[in-house]
Amino acid sequence: MIKTELQNKNTVNMDLLAPRALVDIINKEDGAALRAVAAAKKEIARAVEKAAKIFAAGGNIIFIGAGTSGRLGVIEAAECYPTFSLEPGRVLGITAGGKNAVFKSKEGAEDDGEQGKKDILKAAKKGDIVFGVTASGRTPYVISALRAAGKIGAATVLICCNNVDIDKRAADIIIYLPTGPEVLQGSTRMKAGTATKMTLNIITTSTMALCGKIYKNLMVDVKATNNKLRGRAARLVRSIAGVDEKTAQQFLRQTNYNVKTAVVMLKKSVDKKTAGNRLQKQKGFLRKVLNE
Fold first, then answer.
1. Cys-Cys with 212: which of 97, 123, 132, 285 at CB 3.0–4.6 Å?
2. Contacts for 265 with CB less than 8 Å, ≥ 6 apart
3. What are the residue ranges in the chain where pLDDT is below 50?
4. Strand order of the sheet with strand 61-65?
5. What pLDDT, on the 0 to 100 scale, is given for residue 154?
6. How high is the pLDDT of residue 239?
7. Which residues in 3-65 belong to E strands, given as ranges?
8. Following DSSP, what letter does each residue of 190-219 receive, concatenated?
């Protein structure tokens, strides 16, 4: 029996509880998501190491899933672009049923293994890394996609919340998140979804840190596409370079709001081209440039 489909003995009287009691019991059960991620830290770290090497070498990161799992992958991929100023296609999310399934459930799509194979072969190539995301660990759409990706030379990772009767040969690395039975039986948008989202956050953020997209704990590769993010970029330059708002804005305008380039220009007293060359030489690692 799939563990996430079992009845949770701690919540069998939910329909009798008052609002505060409902909040308390769900909140208490959510602690299992945190513990599940902690239990999988070794495998998550292996996946991060693999993903960072692949991404640094020019390979792409692809998340593929169905239902809640698919939507989580799509969200994670979408958020990477403004956070780390990525080029189109470097991090991609695919969900069973296509883009419309992000907003409207297409439950039957998860059973179509052939479509999973077709979808991943359109997106992935040798040298990429594919993360198959499925709470049950068995979803045909996802498992078929992982098998197909492995056959063309992509690295593969399975993220799941069940370890009973799963195909352990479907992926190079298996990240098992033992969240157990859901608060609401079978509703994997809850603990399983929370643990999965936490894991995806760890994977993308850690990978980008290893690829020079972070300085200290600062979002220095932020893509400043609106007023809020332009303000954040200015605060970053002010903080790192030790300059006032006027100076920060002046150098950001020169660099099309590229924080790292502006910082190097200010800290190293060089022009835009030289700053860019130094960052390229150090593969984007701002700390390494500043320590030269």
1. 285
2. 251, 254, 255, 271, 272, 275
3. none
4. 91-95, 61-65, 129-133, 155-160, 173-176
5. 98
6. 96
7. 61-65
8. THHHHHHHHHHHHHHHHHHHHTT--BTTB-
Domains and CATH numbers, the chain: 3-210 (3.40.50.10490), 227-290 (1.10.8.1080)
Strand partners, 95: 65
Q: Which pLDDT does position 103 carry in this prediction? A: 83
Phi, psi of 266 (to 5 degrees): -75, -45
> In this structure, how many other beta carbons lie within 10 angstroms of the beta carbon of residue 197?
19
Asked if 108 contacts 101 with a C-beta cutoff of 8 angstroms, the reply is no
Query: Pairing mode, if any, of strands 61-65 and 129-133?
Result: parallel
Question: In terms of C-beta density within 10 A (0-12 exposed, 13-18 middle, 19 or more buried), how is residue 232 classed?
Answer: middle
Backbone angles phi, psi at 7, to 5 degrees: -80, 135
Task: Please confirm, yes or no, whether 79 is among the known catalytic residues.
Answer: yes
Round to whole Å and give the CA distance between 80 and 161. 24
Among residues 43, 76, 110, 182, the one annotated as catalytic is 110
pLDDT of residue 235: 97
Q: CA 245 to CA 37: how far, in whole Å? A: 41
Nearest to 175 by CA among 187, 188, 192: 192
* b/e map 271-292, b = 16+ CB within 10 Å: ebeebbebbeebebbbeebbee
The pLDDT of residue 277: 97
Tokens at 88, concatenated: 């189109």
Within 10 A of 230 (CB to CB), how many other CB atoms are there?
Answer: 16
Active site residue 43: no
43, 79, 87, 114: the catalytic one is 79
User: Is the separation of the CB atoms in 134 and 60 below 8 Å?
Assistant: no
